[in-house]
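A protein record in our archive is deliberately plain, so that people and models can read it alike. The tokens are whole numbers drawn from a learned vocabulary of local backbone shapes. For reference, a complete record is included directly beneath this paragraph.
>
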Amino acid sequence: MPSGPPSGSATGRRRAKIDLRIAPAEETLSGLIGDGQEEQYDFAFIDADKTGYGIYFEECMKLARPGGLIAVDNTLWSGSVIDSSDQSADTIAIRAFNEKLQADRRIELSLVPIGDGLSLAMKHVEKS
């Protein structure tokens, strides 16, 4: 039994679709952009190698529609991001990524302090 109204129903909304892809993230995201899917996605979830977060975020910004949400996991990294003695590559990358998000004027940002931290970035809707 369908879980929602069929496409083109009286609500005018499309049925939700999840497109799970398991492959190298940068390759997958670049392929979607190459296929002309820019600004076609409502939601993206980033939980990959931490040193690639900046690249993945930029690719997801191209794919997300205005008003779309990008969720990024592990942005508190078990508290390591505030431990100046932790100079591992992953921790340094997450610190830099968090600073980049905080300064990014293209998004509204919220950090949810659950688990290892979840950052939610909503892409601004351009005003005409």
In short: The two ends are 42 Å apart (CA to CA). Strands lie at 41-46, 64-73, 107-112, 118-123. Residues 66 and 127 are 10 Å apart (CA to CA). The longest helix spans residues 89-103.
